[in-house]
Design brief:
Oligomer: single chain
Shape: globular
Number of strands: 9
Strand order of the largest sheet: 2-1-9-8-7-6-5-4-3
Order of helices and strands: HEHHEEHEHEHHEHEHEHEHHH
Helix content: 40-55%
Radius of gyration: 18 Å
Bound molecules: 3-hydroxy-3-methylglutaryl-coenzyme A
Number of helices: 13
Largest sheet: 9 strands, parallel
Distance between the termini: 43 Å
Strand content: 5-15%
Length: 332
């Protein structure tokens, strides 16, 4: 199906689908407007990238990372999580991080909120965007959120409603969309069901998380076909971990399908504490190289992104996981 046809179809479906959705979630910054020639990057390195680090990372390092990503002109920087510090101790300084960063007009700094308690902490600090993150499978849901899928959707429904009441945008993740570490294969229709629920509850965007990176481009295409029946492609993002080296192929497929929001992590930082062996997100530097190579814009300078990736890798005492960054650095 051509991109034009897909977009025409999805626009019609968009009006049908959004007729029952609270209107407030549709008021988005102009930079969020769907533009086929522009890919909006959501850099999740301060949150997804750092949450799994064993050694405590100093709060000033996290703040400097976010400020450097801001200076790169990344439009959305997922900054931290207001989750239970018992579950993710590395991000227990969430409040200090949010108070310490220098926010730029037009840049968004969403945070993860697993429940109303997390949302209240975030609201006290004046956050403008939060993210909720149910999974598709019972196994992953119980390990990550200590509750089954239906129970977490109920909790997230409360979080979304309260966030919208307070004028806060909500992004919705769906985890383990292309494979679960506890249950194996995941059907596209089960992902579509969770994505539709989140969208109807008021999430302005649904990010499809290949949490353990087992997806391949064919599976990504089948998934997008199913999810696009219930959420317009304009409201979808992809969040690919690169554990099996498939992330760029999956993103290429998603972009050709019409998706224009890609989550990534500078230097490929990251991993999920509740998905054993999961490596980082796809590296921001690698996504920039791919997207610019497809003739699309991001507003971000690749060489400057490489500097930020190399800096944070140095702070963490490791090699930059981006192949593009390493190739470009070798030429210096
Ligand atoms: C959902 C819970 C809280 C349930 O965890 P629980 O233990 O069932 O919660 P609880 O309500 O029984 O509370 C336990 C304790 O935590 C406290 N607590 C409770 N909530 C909060 C809060 N918000 N902020 C601060 N404290 C909190 C609460 O007050 C209590 O403290 P105590 O009374 O024992 O001193 C827990 O399971 C949790 O925090 N899970 C988050 C796990 C997580 O962050 N995982 C990684 C992110 S998901 C991910 O990476 C995937 C994604 C998004 O990237 C997409 C993809 O790749 O697919």
């Amino acid at each position: 199906m051509s991109l034009h046809r897909l977009r025409t179809l999805s626009t019609t479906r968009w009006s049908q689908l959004t007729s029952t959705v609270p209107k407030r979630h549709l008021t988005l910054p102009t930079s969020y407007k769907y533009d086929p020639s522009f890919v909006r990057l959501v850099d999740v390195s301060p949150r997804d990238g750092l949450q799994n680090e064993r050694t405590p990372i100093p709060t000033p390092t996290k703040i400097t990372l976010i400020n450097k990503l801001t200076a790169l002109n990344i439009p959305v920087i997922e900054s931290t999580s207001f989750v239970s510090p018992k579950w993710v101790p590395q991000l227990s300084d969430a409040a200090a991080v949010m108070q310490g960063i220098s926010k730029k007009e037009g840049t968004s700094y969403p945070v993860l909120t697993p429940n109303l308690k997390g949302l209240e902490r975030a609201l006290e600090l004046g956050v403008e965007e939060v993210a909720v993150f149910p999974a598709v499978t019972e196994g992953f849901s119980k390990r990550n959120l200590n509750a089954g899928v239906e129970e977490t959707l109920g909790r997230f429904g409360d979080v979304i409603a309260k966030a919208l009441e307070n004028g806060v945008r909500v992004r919705g993740y769906v985890s383990v969309v292309l494979g679960c570490p506890y249950e194996g294969d995941v059907s596209p229709s089960s992902v579509a069901r969770v994505a539709e629920r989140l969208f109807k509850m008021g999430c302005y965007e649904i990010s499809l998380g290949d949490t353990i990176g087992t997806g391949t481009p064919n599976k990504m295409r089948e998934l997008l076909k199913a999810v696009c029946q219930v959420v317009p492609v304009e409201n979808l993002a992809v969040h690919c971990h690169d554990t099996y080296g498939q992330a760029l192929g999956n993103i290429y497929e998603a972009i050709n399908f019409g998706v224009r929001v890609v989550d990534s992590s500078v230097a490929g930082l990251g991993g999920c504490p509740y998905a054993k062996g999961a490596t980082g997100n796809v590296a921001t530097e690698d996504v920039l190289y791919l997207v610019h190579g497809m003739g699309l814009r991001t507003g971000v300078d690749l060489n400057e992104a490489v500097k930020v990736g190399n800096w944070i890798s140095g702070e963490l005492g490791r090699k930059n996981a981006s192949r593009v960054a390493n190739a470009l650095t070798a030429k210096l």
